[in-house]
TrEMBL record:
Keyword Nucleus tagged: no
Record-annotated site: Transition state stabilizer: 24
EC number(s) reported in the record: 2.7.7.3
Primary location: cytoplasm
Cofactor: Mg(2+)
Entries under CDD domains matching the protein: PPAT (cd02163)
Cross-referenced NCBIfam families: coaD_prev_kdtB, cyt_tran_rel
Protein family: Belongs to the bacterial CoaD family.
Keywords, comma-separated and alphabetical: ATP-binding, Coenzyme A biosynthesis, Cytoplasm, Magnesium, Nucleotide-binding, Nucleotidyltransferase, Transferase
Protein name: Phosphopantetheine adenylyltransferase
Length: 167
């Protein structure tokens, strides 16, 4: 008989991470304190144009999470619950920036629970990052704005290289 004490507690932090921000890393780091293993999975969506390829996003995440011994990076396409079932992951960790995030995420959480019994842990974002979104980081960088406090240094470098800006 398996007891809860001997079971590895796994969680999934999914997202597009285009690019990874300090807000994402705050959620991943906090999840890493709560779970034995955290899988950060880049969602592959061929119909959406991304600034960075899946491989580039994975590489940036690997570098950004290298200090965590219990975090690993992967990619997935399709239903998130199928990924969770295939990898024995019973919970999804999602950061919430605002009430508007909750409306959408609650529907997804209820659907995931109904489809596959996968629970969702909602983690409020650190207020310092409550406004932060990858799309805003890309837009600000594109126009030469300073996002150095919003992303890790290696991500900033890649953003500047991709957009041809330096700030």
């Amino acid at each position: 008989m398996t007891t809860h004490a001997s079971r590895v507690r796994r969680a999934l932090c999914p997202g597009s991470f285009d690019p990874v921000t300090n807000g994402h890393l705050d959620i991943v780091g906090r999840a890493a304190l709560l779970y034995d293993e955290v899988v950060v999975a880049v969602f592959v969506n061929e119909s959406k144009s991304s600034m960075f390829s899946v491989e580039e996003r994975r590489a940036m995440l690997e570098e950004a999470t290298a200090a965590y011994g219990n975090v690993r990076i992967d990619a997935f396409h399709g239903l998130i619950v199928d990924y969770c079932t295939a990898h024995d992951i019973p919970v999804i960790v999602k950061g919430l920036r605002a009430v508007s995030d909750f409306d959408y995420e609650l529907q997804m959480a209820q659907m995931n629970r109904g489809l596959a019994g996968v629970d969702t842990l909602f983690m409020p974002t650190n207020p310092e990052y409550s406004f932060l979104a990858s799309s805003l980081v890309k837009e600000i960088t594109k126009w030469g704005g300073d996002v150095s406090s919003l992303v890790p240094a290696h991500v900033l470098k890649r953003l500047q290289e991709r957009t041809g800006t330096t700030h």
